[in-house]
Description:
Largest sheet: 7 strands, parallel
CATH class: Alpha Beta
Shape: globular
Helix content: 40-55%
CATH topology: Rossmann fold
Order of helices and strands: EHEHEHEHEHEHHE
Structural class: alpha/beta
Oligomer: single chain
Strand order of the largest sheet: 3-2-1-4-5-6-7
Strand content: 5-15%
Radius of gyration: 18 Å
Amino acid sequence: xxxxxxxxxxxxxxxxxxxxxxxxxxxxxxxxxxxxxxxxxxxxxxxxxxxxxxxxxxxxxxxxxxxxxxxxxxxxxxxxxxxxxxxxxxxxxxxxxxxxxxxxxxxxxxxxxxxxxxxxxxxxxxxxxxxxxxxxxxxxxxxxxxxxxxxxxxxxxxxxxxxxxxxxxxxxxxxxxxxxxxxxxxxxxxxxxxxxxxxxxxxxxxxxxxxxxxxxxxxxxxxxxxxxxxxxxxxxxxxxxxxxxxxxxxxxxxxxxxxxxx
Length: 262
């Protein structure tokens, strides 16, 4: 991946600290790089160290500052330690993006194993809850509060597809959890929203046996925009909701899906 120096861009997040979970690849890495490009100190989290280190390398090669922290968001001690690490290193936690999640199964619901069901609940719902709780507890102690963006999915409250009932249920839960938490904590200066991506240029958007050309052809035939979203486009939506530009946006769920649910 080519690197780009971070000078000469807008700097909405200069001096702020942004935490991104699931930042070792895909949307999470794209979001981390986008925050760094706008001046943020970035804390990247995930379960595997090697891809996190690569994200840090990309940020630093472009002139930014980043810290990698290994964490399993489905474990409360990990989320609490993650927030502490961000504050200890950079002095505050101003923005958090809860992106970590898994998609297991792909079979009809009656054929889904309890293991796959539980894995998705643990990462996609409990993980978001535990991360939110730790982040809010820190942000509400800060005079400037903070902003949180949860990554839900177009497959949730917005749309469904065969073979993804469990995944869709967990992502619908993220959308609802976002709205409830937003109402609970906006009076404490913590502003919470969600982004629901549709098909995005990550490995998750491939169907079994599909090539990039196959995926592009499918998108041309089925999506109103004629293509899937780039990770940078999803990141742009996240940064908008996390920025002062969205100061009065509370509890929304912004869909970025190439028009699929229009």
